[in-house]
Amino acid sequence: MSDCRTVFAQLLQARCPQGFAWLNEQAAAVAAATPRAIATGIALTPRFTGKADLEPSEGEMARVNELVPGLDLRFWSVDQLARCYLLLHVPADSAHAFTASLDGLFRTSDVAEGVALYQGLACYPFAHALVARAREGLRSNQKALVAAVALGNPFPARHFDEEAWNQMLLKCLFVGLPLHRVQGVDHRCNRALSVMLSDYARERRAAQRPIPHDLWRVAAPRLPDERLEDIERTLVGVAGDDPRAIATAALGLANNPAPRAQALMARFPHLQHAINNGELTWHAIEEA
């Protein structure tokens, strides 16, 4: 945690040198467990740091990722980083004490403050004690809070069990968040998730609503044989899905090792050829 504080301090000092003096005073008060110091600091931070985009350099991102692999600061603002920096000064004598402090902040936070607190989950101590808090964020009806937990945040991939992970991806699809920004999205595909998302796809089709194209990115690699007809409808282009869905379904299906899945993929040689030649990639799909 102290290493994160050091790197975050360097990033903040370079972007708000005048506000950083105030921020350090607040951090010292937080570390000394001064009553209300953390709540006051979190609330007042934007006045002293501004709300400009953080825009970290490649070198800065590399330094951060040495400490917290997968943490994506590219979509953070300066005040969000500053709020996380303050929270890293909360005394961490025990998991109970730290989570109690964090829970107190969430009870009084507005959406902007909550976003900053959730974004920093992977930086905090006592990760095992924070899973329930992370899941609480995903239950929110505020899309920004769901995004703060799910996108560019390595905490869920590291600490969620399968059930929590699957529910998070379903929530992302439900509220329209892009799955390609979920850390570890391609490494935690599982059969239960594939069946859940296949059911979701069927519900959407029954209601004559489009299926999010990136659903197949996580559903296809472990889709069981009895559900292949769902993805086949997308591949043959009769489902009226998002135009990117065919490419996503093909690339996802290509990662399914089951013989029947590979036999289905063989019916679309033009798509297999594009994959083999490196023309059809996740990056190309999301940039389309």
- Global mean pLDDT: 95
Query: End-to-end span in angstroms?
Result: 39 Å
Helix content: 55-70%
Largest sheet: none
Strand portion: under 5%
Total number of beta strands? 0
- SSE string, helices as H and strands as E: HHHHHHHHHHHHHHHHHH
Instruction: Please count the helical segments.
Output: 18
Which structural class do the helices and strands define? mainly alpha
- Poorly predicted runs of 5 or more residues: none
From the spread of the alpha carbons, the general shape counts as: elongated
Number of domains: 2
- Rg (C-alpha, Å): 22 Å
Q: What is the gist of this entry?
A:
This protein has 288 residues and is an all-alpha fold.
List keywords for this structure.
2 domains; 288 residues; 62% helix; mainly alpha
